[in-house]
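Supplementary Methods, section 5.1.

A reviewer requested that the exact input to the structure prediction be made available. We therefore reproduce it here, unchanged from the version used in the analyses.
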Amino acid sequence: MSFYFKNNHNKQSTLDSLFSELLSFDSYDELPAPSNIISNDESIEIHLQAPGIPKDKIQIDFQGNLLKVSHEPQEEKDKPSYIQQQIFNDGFKNSFKMQTDVDEKNISATMDNGILKIKIPRKKEKTKSRIKIT
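The structure derived from this sequence is encoded cell-by-cell as follows.
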C-alpha cells in the first residue's frame, strides 16, 4: 500500500486519521478479541478467541447488517496482590459488518475449547419468476 503526500503536514494528518479509524476504542477494555472469518457458499463463520470466559458472559447482537460480540468483565472483589500478572480478564468488543444478505433468524453460536464459533447462514438466492402479460 502506498500513499502520495504533498508535504509532511498532510502525511501526518492522513496517517493520524487512518489509525484513529482503525483503532477507535474508548478504552483498552474495548479492544477486539482475535478472530478469524471463514466464508463459503452457505454461510459465514466467525471464530473468536475467548479462553476462560463463560458462554453466558458473552453477548451477541445482530441488527441491520451489523453483528456485535462483547464481554464485560466483572470486577474482582478480593483482587490478589500479584507479583507478576500476564493473564488478564479484560473485556472485548467486536463488530462485523455483513456485506451480504444473511438469514439472521438462524444465526447460531457454540463455544469449543475457548473459541466462540458463530455461524451466520446466507439467505437463499431469490428465484426469478417471469410474469405473463394477459
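Residues 61 and 68 are 5 Å apart (CA to CA). These observations are discussed further in the main text.
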